[in-house]
Amino acid sequence: MTAQLAAGGARTSRQRRLLRRLPWWIAAVFLIGVAVIWIFPFLWMLSASLKDNLEMFTAGLQLWPKKFVWANYARAWNDAHFGRYLLNTVLVTVITVAIVTIRCATAGYVLARYRFRGSRVFLGVLIATLFVPTGYTIIPVVKISLQLHLIDSLAGMILALSGGAYVSAILIYYGYFRQIPKELEEAAVVDGAGFVRTFFSVMLPLAMPVTATVAVLTFITTWNAFFLPLVFTFSRPDLRTVSVGMQAFVGETATDWSGMAAAGVISILPVVILFIILQRYFVEGISGAVKS
Amino acid sequence: MTIRSVHVTRGETRSRSTTSAHGRSPARYGWRRTTWIWIFLLPTVVLYGLYTIYPIIASYWYSLVDWNGFDQNQTFVGFSNYREVFSDPLFWNSFKITLLFMVLVVPARVLLSLLLAIVLNSPKMPLIGVLRSAFFIPVVTTTAIIGVVMRLILDPASGPINSVLLKFGSGGIDFLGDQHLALPTAAVLYIWKFFGVTMIYWLAALQTISYELIEAARIDGAGTWQIFRHITLPMLKPFLIIITVLTIEETFHNFDLMYTLTGGGPYFHTEIIEIYIYRWAFAASIPQLGHASAAAVIFGLLVAIVGAIQLWAVYTSRRMRGADR
After folding, report:
1. pTM value > 0.90
2. What is the Cα–Cα distance from A135 to B299, expressed in whole angstroms?
């Protein structure tokens, strides 16, 4: 008797709980549908990169290719030079990330931990220029790169990209180093560490999560940069990055859609993989803008 | 964390640092310290100074000269570039389109992403991780490449969207080639591309609302709607200001998508100011760099005005948050 009652009670409460959960599941199913439409352009690109051009023009929304045409990738890689563009992009991105991360870490550190003549002005200028668009600075940047003989070179592109707006990265480091208790620094000084050792062996290792965030954000910004690489490679097609190369591909062979789709996959896949692996740091970096 | 608490700890650390840590020969220590400080700042001073600060200042000078190509001489002409820019209907066209674009995308990005963020913030929602990632993925992909791929997808003759429309018997739509459709289409694509950023902003804002507060309200008998109306919304209000202004600032950085999608066409109907500048400086057969610089300076002022509003807004919202506590 009692057992029966208990079982009945359990069932209704479970049913009730399921019932209460039901609207959420309906919402989830609905949102999954929206999400599929949301990422449709990527699915289409992936599918187009594996069809031959004839099939693609007739397939409409049919995503699964009848037969997989891997030759599209070979064409994008060799004939459209995306192998070369990818190498350029990797080179530019990796070096820029290294420069930006180091310069933002050191600047954020001294601004947060020390008061010196000009520190407030320095910070003020940084904040005032937080949102300078590339379209505003592009002409003087090109002019000065010409004067320094840095235009039409990857080195020039890297320097210009590293000098661009990464104020938010400095501010993220600034906010983090500010919170670290003074005792840690004092302990390092007592142990005989100087200015540089304190930073590199105590402070910077502590800031690893911030470094990861800054590196990931910078990586994606640089990989996706378009305006500067476009202007820096006008007369040197062999130095194009993938984003500029795609534009050129359309200009050269407007009909090879499968090749373009393959080139798109080659260019976008690395950032998507990076995002999936390091999602956490990426989200942290973006939400930092609201929290500060 | 409130701003006030940061200030308190900061004051403490500072006073202690002057008394205890650096006891030995303060003058010599200070000199060495200052040297190291500036060595640490050096890369930023050089790179940021050269590629951001100097260009901001130099633009003002360039806007006052006649200058037909990067290797040509500059001759001072006073404000005549500004007179030309102001009397160029296409400049005002690009100015109008930049603002119109902002009006089209900002409300959608801010408000729709709030709805999504609220749903994706609920602990009862299944599959949160997958959904968040899916809605976020367009953000990380290369804008200039998305622009090209979207041109294929929306192609009036053989793109997949139009092939479906044709199958259902309606005529094909030239989304990016039609004068009236091009800007709204670009706006929708822009919203799609950067929706995830605003969603993350909102999720960060929602996470500042403590779970205990909501639980307490629930125990007191508040329903889901009441909690949303009387707790969540009021607490989100200060964030609304910050997020709106951040989103507005971001719409100024739209060269990549517009340029690859439409190049400013058809007939300048999607020519935002950045493309206007690019056209005069890089795409013309005889570059008019003075003219382009004058337009750039005006554009910079527009961005700066919005930036000033932003600082004010952040300040106000901080006060609002402070008053809540």
Report:
1. no
2. 9
